[in-house]
Specification:
This protein is an alpha/beta fold. The protein has five helices and six strands; from the N terminus they run βαββββαβααα. A hairpin with a 2-residue loop joins strand 3 and strand 4.
Amino acid sequence: MITIQVLGLDQFVVGRYSREHGANLAQLFETDENDIVFYAPNSMVFHGGVEQTSWQTIVIVRAPEKYLPLEEAVADYLLRTMNLFSINIHLEFEYVSEAHTYDFINSKYPRYIEVPEEKNDDYEFSFGEEPEEMEGEIVHGHDHDHDHEHCDHDHAEEDVYLGDAFAGFEEKYEEAMKKKN
């Protein structure tokens, strides 16, 4: 298994990156796409006490030793494609002996959870557009005007309260202060 760890970049950006670039990376590694996973912990990179998320990204590729000859091509691809999301990228390769790795794959379940293809169309982004071209565009990640027959819960419970959440608070506060004194 090849693990690509990404530090200092939003987890959802890494998720999107894995979907869009996993097949290309598998081709460069000359392996099956199922042999590559991405690890994106909720992390921040700091320098001099200043948070550097999306400014400094650290990518660590951990792979079996047999992939060492392919490192240069993979490094070039990762650096060229990750620079869409980060200003600066530090890339490291760590190699492990396959004699010291173990897997358990439960045959009763699919190897990976997959998103149905129609769900992938909910989030569309374009890179390289000029700001004036994007003016007024809104990207909707979830449209609530769809059919809810598959749901077994009441969406009315999810409505945001639009009233005065602090109505009567001052009176309750003053009363509490009088009791305290």
